[in-house]
Amino acid sequence: MSKMILHEDPISGNCYKIRLTAAHLGIPLERREYDILAGETRTTEFLSNVNPNGRIPVLQIGDRFLPESNAACWYLASGSHLVPQDRFDQADMLRWMFFEQYSHEPNIATLRFWRAFVGEERLSSVQRAMVPAKEAAGDDALRLMNDHLEGRQFLVGSTITLADICLYAYTHLAEAGGFDLKAYANILAWLEVVRLQPRHIAFEDA
Amino acid sequence: MSKMILHEDPISGNCYKIRLTAAHLGIPLERREYDILAGETRTTEFLSNVNPNGRIPVLQIGDRFLPESNAACWYLASGSHLVPQDRFDQADMLRWMFFEQYSHEPNIATLRFWRAFVGEERLSSVQRAMVPAKEAAGDDALRLMNDHLEGRQFLVGSTITLADICLYAYTHLAEAGGFDLKAYANILAWLEVVRLQPRHIAFEDA
């Protein structure tokens, strides 16, 4: 593989997913840090050279740039033990990764970002109006995971996959968004299983 | 492959993606229709037997159920000419599919649904407050695609992939959400390229 650089902000769970995937696979990543809150991913230089979408993470592979955290995880893990070979299980793993981006991250990660980093008093009136719907949808996502995890150690199959890594990132930080994980016993058990995997790295150490 | 049943609502672009993928691959799909607006995906039976998330589409394969439209497309197309074998291109295809679910569908498809099916007068006050942000974010997504398509026929590589199929679905319906596609010449040319592919099926005939 070409040399890889992760363009990231350490406060972002989406960036942590990629570092966690790389740690599981023993792949070295060079890291380049940007401060989202200071607008460092909206500069002309970032938009022209790294990602016209103005978002991190971006995984740079040689001189090519790959945005979207879950796509970067796929790039790193494709062909490894983190991606099931079985056709259904592989698609089912992606199903959880799409669920993460559509039903989980926009609620659970966004409320964490608003509450722990932006500050509720600095939200716009539209953002403030969206809070109750994001709380309800975040709890729906957690309930769905919790029900699915009944009697299971992992989201797909019997070993850790990218589905677990990608959903671990913001689920284990959900309390900073105001979610009460004590209501979700299967999720708490699963977080512990993921945390105890060999080669796991913690968010704060990542 | 086992017999496959698509649980769907014909008004949904997410369901159309799966029918379009299947058409490109010559895979027969049995179809079972639900009326989202009449709440038919929120019945106890649907939630227990098809998808606890209460959403369509769901691709049923034998007695297993696969939610998330883009995961269903992956299941059908994995190993086919619609998925690049090159490691970067494959991840880049998924990048566009995650972009579709995170930055495109929640704006462009949601405004179409609100305006063409729910009706603006029946939106909640929170939904109404979200319209300007969704219009702006939808235009950001279209601009990003339009810029990327400069000098390209397809989103990834030189042949059609799932990235094109998944983004075609709601992009070609964007005007029903109030977006003006005439502002995006490269998108208009790309829509035509996708539409003229052998085995293409139109939304209304699908």
Molecular structure report:
The structure is a homodimer of 206-residue chains. Chain A is of the alpha+beta class and 206 residues long. Chain A folds into 2 domains: 4-77, Glutaredoxin, CATH 3.40.30; 87-195, Glutathione S-transferase Yfyf (Class Pi), Chain A, domain 2, CATH 1.20.1050. Chain A is built from 7 helices and 4 strands; from the N terminus they run E-H-E-H-E-E-H-H-H-H-H. In chain A, strands 2-1-3-4 form a 4-stranded mixed sheet, covered by helices on one side. In chain A, strand 3 (58-61) and strand 4 (64-67) form a beta hairpin. The model of chain A has no long low-confidence stretch (mean pLDDT 96). Chain A binds chain B through residues 52-53, 61, 64, 66-72, 74-75, 78, 87-88, 90-92, 94-95, 97-99, 101-103, 105-106, 125-126, 129-130, 132-133, 144, 147-148, and chain B through 52-53, 61, 64, 66-72, 74-75, 78, 87-88, 90-92, 94-95, 97-99, 101-103, 105-106, 125-126, 129-130, 132-133, 144, 147-148.
Cα gyration radius of chain A (Å): 17 Å
The separation of the N and C termini of chain A measures: 22 Å
The CATH architecture of the largest domain in chain A is: Up-down Bundle
Order of helices and strands of chain A: EHEHEEHHHHH
Oligomer: homodimer
Strand content of chain A: 5-15%
The CATH topology of the largest domain in chain A turns out to be Glutathione S-transferase Yfyf (Class Pi), Chain A, domain 2
Mean pLDDT of chain A: 96
Provide the CATH top-level class of the largest domain in chain A.
Mainly Alpha
Residue runs with pLDDT of under 50 for 5 or more positions of chain A: none
**Strand tally of chain A:** 4
- Approximate shape of chain A: globular
As for the number of domains of chain A, it is: 2
Q: Considering residues with a beta carbon less than 8 A from a beta carbon on another chain, report the largest interface and each chain's count.
A: A-B, 38 and 38 residues
Percent of residues in helices of chain A = 40-55%
